[in-house]
Amino acid sequence: MTEATGIVGEFLSLKEGTDADVLAMQCGDFYEFFAEDAEIVADELDLKVSQKSSHGSSYPMAGVPIDDLTPYLKALVERGYRVAVADQYETESGHAREIVRVVTPGTLLETTDTDAQYLAAVVDAERLSSNGRGRGRSDEAGYGLAFADVTTGRFLVAEADDADAALTELYRFDPVEVLPGPAVRSADDLLTEIRERVDATLTLHETEAFAPKRAAHATREQFGRETVDRLSVGEATIAAAGAILSYVEETGAGVLASMTRIQGHHGDDHVTLDATTQRNLELTETMQGDSDGSLFATIDHTETSAGRRLLKEWLCRPRRSLETLERRQASVAALSSAALARDELQETLGAAADLERLASKATHGSADARDLQSVGETLAVLPAIAEIIASTPGLADSPLSEIVDQPDREVADELRATIEEAIVDDPPSTVTQGELFQRGYDDDLDAVIERHEDVREWLDGLAEREKRQHGLSHVTVDRNKTDGYYIQVGKSAADGVPDHYEEIKTLKNSKRFTTDELEDKEREILRLEERRGDLEYDLFEELRETVADRAELLQDVGRTLATIDVLASLATHAAENHWVEPDLHRGDRLEIEQGRHPVVEQTTEFVPNDVRLGPAATAASRERASGRTDQDRGFLVVTGPNMSGKSTYMRQVAAIVLLAQIGSFVPAKDAEIGLVDGIFTRVGALDELAQGRSTFMVEMSELSNILHAATEDSLVILDEVGRGTATYDGISIAWAATEYLHNEVQAKTLFATHYHELTGLAEKLPRVANVHVAADERDGDVTFLRTVRDGPTDRSYGIHVADLAGVPDPVVDRARDVLDRLREEKAIEAKGGGSNEPVQTVFDVSSGQFRGPANADGGEPSETRRSAEDRRSSGSERPADEPGDAIDPETAAVLEDIESIDVNTTPPVELIAKVQEWQEHLED
Ligand code: ADP
Ligand code: MG
């Protein structure tokens, strides 16, 4: 125990009993922080530190007034601290203090942020202990996850097959706090990934809370046995859910009652979007971490914070169900062509408050009269919205009418009426001082109010009456804290006051008096005020409970309004930006005519581009693909000079597919989109390195993830993959990945690369096609046309630029020569294309030798043409038995240099300098 006694001692011993980082302890009208905690808050929040001496020692102390705690709490929690709050309460022998809440990022109710604030738990199914009873399903694999938002009462569970999928779910929900299950704590890999990639506080909640039995009990208690059983999720998932419930209860947020529903989040319904993809596509923030410029910020025209939350949710969780999407589309279509009604809807929605949040506040007991009033006003928005929909023909026969009818409108209206009849127009923010309720709401209250008003009236008329009765001038009646009610008489008249006046104070120009009668009235009015305050507080609590009991209804209405808000927002964006309704289907075909990038088109004169993947169906597209036999193209190799628009083109395709799968219209002239089950993107490490983020290791592990996770129904976007390593390594990886994606995975793929070698694949692999972003080079000017055309690009572009830049002809010619030789000599064969594999010479960079002549005439492959397995396992390394010293070191050094240089990223001037350097070396 600690040596300090008194208040500091009490503080320190309370602190010892909690695992919170900081303790705020109520001392009268203040919350105080002592010792280390005082230093922390002083540092973080700019509070003044004073010294508190306690029995000979001195302790740092900082404090905030009781009513100001919330912003400080919020600020501390947002900085990642867990803050315990100890309240003071009266006892018979004075007062005592007790920790009533531990506020953590995931249990912070006082948030002003409109984003969802998820608390997550993740449990490893395989290593879940089942109390050794053997009742656990030990065959279960993967992870169970649960997510709760205490500010809205949302509660979801999800299952993941492996650590990557678990991470994807975590990333999708973007929790602020994560409770790793017992086994996850010791699984360093997953924990590290969570720590690095999910911006959340990690909290080690007591392991017993994860115990299957206890968790199952808690979950059934909360949501009902049947509901939980119907979810048919594994033990690990229930463990995660139970742990969250226990944590929410233990931290004392008091919102368990607002968690009325548990929902299964099934990955199967949703398009897989792994963490990297969400970041690459800049869904909610840009690569630089700004929210401006994200896809969300671009398309967001919502009116309410609940709508904003839902739109984000849709973007991060696109759907796969054609029915769901078509229903959303039908609503968006109806709304986009009903501009007036849409404006009206949006204006009406503008009056809606955040019902889900208010429901949670009501449950927690922190909602005040204004909050309840907003509940009532927001409930009134629902019928207004329904009316607009019903009276607009285009909307009335759209799915919107069903959506708006989903909550129980009758019950909602009853609750609205109750609140409307109860609360006065402009209620005060305190709920203990009365003046909250309207007349006619409660008879007892009415009687008190009436009596109160009578006395008030009597007091109001007192000054006049005294003047008249006693012939006094300059009389006023007023009230203050020290004197209570008094009659104030001007000095000149003060001597003429009647005998029953009792003087209580002399001021410069006047005297204050009281009378027995006035004192009686004063007592009565104080008694009435107290009575009114108490009565109204009781009534208010009752009303608040009535509202809290309807938490589920409020969530329904909130959800409905948010849904309409999002649909109207999508419609607005579509109408204002000439987006079209894509034709969705379950097939493979992806055809976008004159597609644009949804974000870039906002700020740029955008050049639209087409894309076609999958079997060509329409006559028009067959014509466009004139004469080609490879109608079924599933893999596009996208080439083009730097900055020509390759990345933008591919992201545009991904964004359009994603938008289509949230039910939105898309930036194109026409689009036909076969639904995908996942979108995977990977940007080469070099491009990402510029952002200081990634390493080649990460690039490769993510490529590996794609190769594992993508299916033939997925869309894969590879941008310069392989670029993060030396050229030959890079080409080899890109080449092999292409073959694998084409032959095995068969995903729809777009692969932008500066390795022109890869364009050769189109001839070898049936579903691979080349497209390039055209650039025009004329009269010494390079114009980026931004137009995507069929076929590979001109590969000597870099040298062409050198030429244009005025590099002397001999150098340019020589460079072409060098490049041609490099290209010819390191030709690579493609696997999996035709029946007989082409055999070509491989340039072994490490030995600096060309392995045998080009073997086109069917001669025996040279000994260096090892089997595919060999090549794969040994990479570009030279077999140990081969001579490494066949050429002189000078030449070897040059060759090594040539190998390591990246023609596409090295500025032409530098290239030229290099070539000169090589020539000099070779002459030596
Ligand atoms: P790459 O990946 O080929 O190096 P990017 O896709 O990064 O090129 O595009 C380079 C620049 O060109 C970007 O600033 C982008 O905004 C612009 N851009 C790309 N495509 C288009 C287009 N279709 N219309 C207009 N500008 C475009
Ligand atoms: Mg690029």
Automatic annotation (TrEMBL):
Q: Where is this region: Disordered?
A: 847-891
Key word Transit peptide present in the record?
A: no
- PROSITE patterns attached to this UniProt entry: DNA_MISMATCH_REPAIR_2 (PS00486)
Q: One GO MF term, please? A: damaged DNA binding
Q: Where does ATP bind?
A: 640-647
Could you tell me where the Basic and acidic residues compositional bias lies?
A: 862-881
Write out the GO biological process terms. mismatch repair
Q: Which UniProt keywords apply?
A: ATP-binding, Coiled coil, DNA damage, DNA repair, DNA-binding, Nucleotide-binding
Family in the record: Belongs to the DNA mismatch repair MutS family.
Its biological function?
This protein is involved in the repair of mismatches in DNA. It is possible that it carries out the mismatch recognition step. This protein has a weak ATPase activity.
- The protein's name: DNA mismatch repair protein MutS
Q: Upper lineage ranks?
A: Archaea, Methanobacteriati, Methanobacteriota, Stenosarchaea group, Halobacteria
